Task: inverse folding
């Protein structure tokens, strides 16, 4: 009969333990998993703060297992290059405005429709409901996984002349994000949409390549200093600019289970913080613009607001089949609390 020595038994037990606990065994000696998070806005905006909080919490809770590197202000990629880099695995996290995701999902274009949501509370209700959750998963065929929705805020129009009625925008060249829905809204005003990367807008306004822009948030307007090159802003609330935190689906599914679970928990915590603070951050930025002087912020009366709505909302019908009438209905219903 074969004799087992004490040494061989210890060795065999050691092998079994190492095989049973691969995660722990690796974590002790291996390098941290590096997650690059690239975005295009400033740190003192809802997304900028969210990225920094994510980095901080991951450092606190996952120590040497995972390292988040944040690249703000288009310092690594603009949104278009960032999306390509996500697909090739050169970056692992992005949170683009959903206006940049229409090429991967027709339903995500819903968020670009004009005057669809009355306020951020309605946006939250929709995002947390079935429709929002469906859109979050709508890009998996492209290997893009939606992890969460992060708020920025409602869109405001700016130019170098007061935009009080849709007629005021006629003939103007207005910057929009690369979204067919946003471009269509500008066409409805008989103005000219110019798709332009976020980082190029200030210069575009300064040199007259564009006369203004068709809707962005107070926090983006102020942190990009567009108020230095735009004399008039209209509190139009003509749409929402919200983000989807996205990752490369294969990368995410390939993470060790315990790491992915902890990251999901941290993301839920960060999402709550971003969404709780976004409204206030935007109101502060609006006030900062007013305090900086040199720019007039116009509020619209009911009749003027109706004119803008009437001018832009044919776009809802135009994109209804592409986006999905049921989703649009659910979004409209989210305005009733
Ligand atoms: C824009 O391009 O205007 C925005 O999508 C930028 C951003 O990320 O908020």
Result:
């Amino acid at each position: 009969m074969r004799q087992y020595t004490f040494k061989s038994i210890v060795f065999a037990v050691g092998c079994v333990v190492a095989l049973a606990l691969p995660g722990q065994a690796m974590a002790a000696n291996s390098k941290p998993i590096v997650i690059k998070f690239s975005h295009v806005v400033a740190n003192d905006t809802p997304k900028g703060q969210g990225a920094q909080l994510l980095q901080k919490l991951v450092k606190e809770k996952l120590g040497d297992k995972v390292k988040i590197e944040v690249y703000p202000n288009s310092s690594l990629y603009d949104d278009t290059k960032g999306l390509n880099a996500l697909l090739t695995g050169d970056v692992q996290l992005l949170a683009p405005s959903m206006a940049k995701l229409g090429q991967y999902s027709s339903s995500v274009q819903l968020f670009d429709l004009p005057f669809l949501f009355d306020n951020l509370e309605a946006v939250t209700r929709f995002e947390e409901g079935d429709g929002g959750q469906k859109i979050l998963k709508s890009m998996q065929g492209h290997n893009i996984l939606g992890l969460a929705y992060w708020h920025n805020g409602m869109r405001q129009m700016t130019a170098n002349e007061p935009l009080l009625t849709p007629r005021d925008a006629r003939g103007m060249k207005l910057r929009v994000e690369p979204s067919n829905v946003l471009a269509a809204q500008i066409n409805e005003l008989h103005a000219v949409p110019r798709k332009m990367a976020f980082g190029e807008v200030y210069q575009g306004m300064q040199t007259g390549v564009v006369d203004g822009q068709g809707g962005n948030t107070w926090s983006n307007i102020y942190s990009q200093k567009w108020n230095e090159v735009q004399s008039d802003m209209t509190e139009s609330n003509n749409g929402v600019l919200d983000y989807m935190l996205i990752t490369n689906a294969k990368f995410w599914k390939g993470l060790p289970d315990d790491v992915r679970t902890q990251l999901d928990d941290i993301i839920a915590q960060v999402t709550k913080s971003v969404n709780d603070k976004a409204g206030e951050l935007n109101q502060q930025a609006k006030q900062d613009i007013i305090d900086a002087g040199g720019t007039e912020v116009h509020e619209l009366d009911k009749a003027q607001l109706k004119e803008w709505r009437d001018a832009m909302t044919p776009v809802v019908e135009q994109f209804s089949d592409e986006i999905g009438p049921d989703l649009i209905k659910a979004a409209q219903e989210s305005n009733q609390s």
Notes: Residues 15 and 79 are 47 Å apart (CA to CA).
